[in-house]
Write a structure and sequence with these properties.
Largest sheet: 2 strands, antiparallel
Helix content: 40-55%
Low-confidence stretches: none
Bound molecules: zinc ion
Number of domains: 1
Mean pLDDT: 91
Radius of gyration: 14 Å
Strand content: 5-15%
Order of helices and strands: HEHEHHHHH
Shape: globular
Structural class: mainly alpha
Number of strands: 2
Distance between the termini: 18 Å
Amino acid sequence: MRSILQSEKRVCFLCRVLHGDDHEQPTHCHHVMYGIADRKLSEQYGLKVYLCPKHHEFSEEAVHRNKDINLMLRKAAQVVFITKNGNEKWKRLFNRNFLDDEELAIRADNAFEAVGALTKPKEAGAFEITDDPIGADMPF
Ligand SMILES: [Zn+2]
Ligand SMILES: [Zn+2]
């Protein structure tokens, strides 16, 4: 299924969100919920974003290396998913919750909107980047 999070396949989601850079470039498709079962669900429900190699795997801002960025993408995915399908279905499929009560009220049609809404109350710096590694052996 096509992504419900992002329509432009050649724009890196994180270049745009973190750096305001939306130039076209080669990207990888990242399944926001990954692991054997969750990856299939990400495919089925379109929980995919497009990332440059740096933001996919190869820098401290890479989703597979940075817990905060991984969580940001999962929060955004949950917001867009529940906007379309409802939170009961999210809970049933993924059995995990990434949103607090306030965040559960957010509705957004794509992940850019979702990230904007999720970060609005916080200061302008948005996400604190840490280089806390997730573990190199996670299945992509
Ligand atoms: Zn990027
Ligand atoms: Zn990935």
